[in-house]
Amino acid sequence: MSRLERIWPLLPGLAALLVTTLLLLAMGTSPIDAYGAMWQGAFGTSARVYSVLAFLVPLLLAASGLLLTFKAGLWNIGIEGQIIMGAIAASWVALRVELPAGLQIPMELAAAMAGGALWAALAGLLKTRGGVHEIFGGLALNNLAILFTNYLIAGPWQPPEGGSFRGTQPFGAHALLPLFENSRLSLLSLVLAVLAFAGVALLLTNSHWGLRLKALGQNARSAFLLGVSSDRELLLAMALCGALAGLGGGVRVLSWFDSLRQSISGGIGYLALMVVLLAGFRLALTPLVAFFFSAVLNGSITLQLRTQLHSALGDILTGVLVLLVLLFGNYARVRRAFRRNRSSENG
Amino acid sequence: MLAAAHAAASTDFFLVYLANIIMQVQLNTIHKQFGSLVANDEISVLFEPGRIYGLLGENGAGKSTLMKILSGYQRPDRGEILLGGAPQHFASPRQALAAGVGMLYQEPLDVPVFTVLENYLLGRAAGGESPRQAARALEALAQRYGFDIDPHEHTSELSMGERQQLELLRLLAGGAQVLILDEPTTGISAEQKDILFASMRTLAREEGKTLILVSHKLDEVQELCDYAFVLRKGRLVGGLPLPCPNQQLVSLMFDELAPRPARRQLGQHAPALSLQSVQVHTGRLELEPVSLQLQAGQVLGLAGLEGSGQELLLRACAGLLPLSGGSLLLGGESQPDWNYPLARQHGVAYLAAGRLEEGLVAGLTLTEHMALVSHTHGLLVDWPQNRKLAEQHISTYQVVGQPESYIENLSGGNQQRFLFAMLPQNLKLILMEHPTRGLDIRSTDWIWEQLDQRRAQGTAILFVSADLDEIAARSDQIAVFSGGRLLRSLPAAETSADELGHLIGGAL
Predict the structure, then answer these.
(1) Which residue from A15, A113, A48 is spatially nearest to A294, judged by alpha carbons?
(2) Looking at the domain assignment, is residue B478 inside a domain?
(3) How far is the CA of B97 from the CAs of B45, B108, B166, in angstroms?
(4) Chain B interface test: which of A207, A225, A228, A334 (most B C-beta within 10 Å)
(5) Are residues B229 and B193 in the same domain?
(6) Do A225 and B371 touch (CB under 8 A)?
(7) Do B240 and B263 have their domain in common?
(8) B155 shares a domain with B74
(9) A35/chain B closest Cα distance in angstroms
């Protein structure tokens, strides 16, 4: 790897910053003020740092799961639905099951993982048994999960004071994750997310199973002929990804919110897909990119309060970044295109 | 009339003259390295128009790499390509073709769902030609070289030889003055080979084109070519005008060649595989009931034109296609629910013809392949152990490559050696499609030596090959297929490659 190749992934980030800066200047705003406000919004006080970390937890969990499915060559678009089903399963335990103190939360988290895993396995079964591509199966299951949430909120789980489309009644204090210093951050969930990422990293680099996933992702036919049981491994990869996403959903209802809400995931699944794509499926980059997204999106919320700018600036920055990375992120491809241009000019 | 012919002849002469100036191909100190593997080591050669060159060398000698560089498919690390003295920098095969260099790959680059005509037009600038005009032009071009192809047929229905003819016409229509043919005679019939060679002579002698035949078949090179360049281990080791004694070429190609040991009869009286009225149906072909017996240690060769049903039978035996009738017995035991994972469990191995499509995983290193097939049940991979295993196999099976090499960077022969290295011990049955297709003499002999060792342990072998010499020389028993039917089954001792050719051709 040349030095240029090594630092290449950073360049689209700088370019995105440049484009956004030009945009700010065109609107007559001082970029320094805007970025300063964003920085303040993300890291200005310790409470804001906790908020960034709290947002990061489900994002990192989902992204870790996606590293597995991408390695196996699967496009698990259904991750959004898997987060939602995890949230629903955790909510069910929180609302309906009363357990001793030491068991309540583990049970909720286990249910969240089971819910996500089940929803993912369904998409996996649709693929392996029904021949439905995981992208289409996943999209359908995402919509079903959203509809199911709305039904629960408006129907069987509506608060006693009457149905609204906003959410269920808040869970009892015993059912919620303990929060860190009045923030929305649960330290337990942060530890779990870090462990999940480390576990995925270990599986992918050093386990027989990770190697089988890699072989399947590269050439499923050869992998099958070499004795890899493709259906089983694909289902397992989906289920494990779903379990991590579901855990993320559980964390959303048990700490970020305190109840099941209408848009409980809020697109974290799709965001996680972007994170992994931007990281170029690379293990080490994934948590960094996830953290960056979390900081930008949280930082831009306070942006509107400080400057006259809309909080969409964060979305613009990330959107431009995604575009630039997809266009120029692949060093080898860029170099090829550049050379082709140069040689056709010469020739 | 006479004047017209004369004018035509002088135009031809003029064209030849023009081609001479324009299309001299010079490769200067071409260097190409894949990781630590030097594929081309400072190679310099000159190809003159109007001649047919042979490019010889054993597997992994660097022939294919050099030609991929010349045809724009790969870029050299160093060195230059000169066409008629002008330096070229091809960024793609398309640019190379625009400059007049076209390459016919071992696997033609056509799109199976398209018709012949659509493939022919593919990649060409949309001209004012109507489809009907284009079809007529294609037919005229085909006729000129004695090819017989129907523009409206689907490419998936064509034989390998016909696909090759189509690709050749596409390159010629694209303006190719230099044609590179990479092992063009593997997988095509003898008749198609004759047509191909005749067209190559026409192209060189009458049209002044430069032809380069990449091959390891000495007889073919001797028959067709004017001059041969020989590569060994990435270096150019010599050039000889042809014909010349085979021994001269062989001594250039190889360091030393061990004599082929006499074939041993190893059949034991224990049933390995028994097929009783086996039927296989696919959308394309129905295989009529076949009954065959194979004893432990025996070799059964399946002969026939490509697509005659022998490949279906082989895949059915591997459990990759379901039987639609009859029964399959392995070691005397009936196997009603035969499938591939079950076959593996029972000690049946299957090696497909397309090594990188069905067998090896591009993007994985040799060490990763070892770890993938190792039967340890632990969760974590013992990388040092697997690396050591890969190193052992590399030296035992004489693979040119490193444990860290990606499998796709190995040459075809070395990929095949590595596939053999990954086969489990104590197999009951080995099923192979074209086990030595594209391999040189030494690799071929080596592969069959390995198989002989397996036979001595009682492994039975069932293989499909388009090479009738191979079938006649290596089998105990031969089954001849034609049009989805088992034509005859006969002991190898009672037949010859010639007779097999007649049988296949339906001359019986």
Answers:
(1) A48
(2) yes
(3) 20, 15, 16
(4) A225
(5) yes
(6) no
(7) no
(8) yes
(9) 42
pLDDT tens, B114-164? 788 887 877 665 556 777 888 888 888 888 888 888 888 887 777 778 888
Contact criterion met (CB < 8 Å) for A221 and B358: yes
Do B279 and B388 fall into the same domain? Answer: no
Same domain, B224 and B298: no
How far is residue A186's CA from residue A203's CA, in Å, rounded to a whole number?
Answer: 26
Q: Are both B11 and B105 inside the same structural domain? A: yes
Q: Shortest CA distance to B145 belongs to which of B73, B71, B199?
A: B199
What fold characterizes domain A30-307? ABC transporter involved in vitamin B12 uptake, BtuC (1.10.3470)
Does B334 share its domain with B368? no
Taking the Cβ of residue A224 and every Cβ of chain B, the question of whether any pair is shorter than 8 Å is answered with: yes
The verdict on A346 touching B (C-beta cutoff 8 Å) is yes
B306 lies in some domain: yes
* B348, two tokens: 């049946």
How far apart are the C-alpha atoms of A234 and A215, rounded to whole Å? 11
Burial of residue B6, with CB atoms counted within 10 A of its CB: 0-12 exposed, 13-18 middle, 19 or more buried: exposed
CA B499 from centroid of its chain's CA atoms: 24
Averaged pLDDT for residues A189-206: 96
Same domain? For B169 and B245 the reply is yes
d(CA B274, CA B475): 17
Number of folded domains in chain B?
A: 3
What residues does each domain of chain A span? Answer: 30-307
B492: distance to nearest CA of chain A, Å?
A: 31
Between B362, B381, B422, which is nearest A207 by CB?
Answer: B381
Q: What DSSP character marks residue A267?
A: T
Cα A92 to the center of its chain, rounded Å: 23
B233: nearest Cα among B37, B36, B30, B70: B37
Does residue A208 contact residue B380 with C-beta atoms inside 8 Å?
yes
The angle, 0 to 180 degrees and rounded to 10, between the axes of the packed helices A285-306 and A312-328 is: 150
Which chain A positions have a beta carbon within 8 Å of B87's beta carbon? none
Residue numbers of the domain that contains B314: 259-347+425-508
Amino acid symbol at A321: L
pLDDT bin (cut points 50, 70, 90) of residue A347 is very low
- Of the candidates B89, B368, B376, the beta carbon closest to that of A343 is on B89
Q: Which helix (H) or strand (E) holds B329?
A: strand B325-330
Q: What is the CATH number of the domain that holds B451?
A: 3.40.50.300
Contact between residue A246 and residue A115 where contact means Cβ atoms under 8 Å apart:
yes
Q: Does residue A215 belong to the interface with chain B, where contact is any CB pair within 8 Å?
A: yes
ipTM given for this complex: 0.84
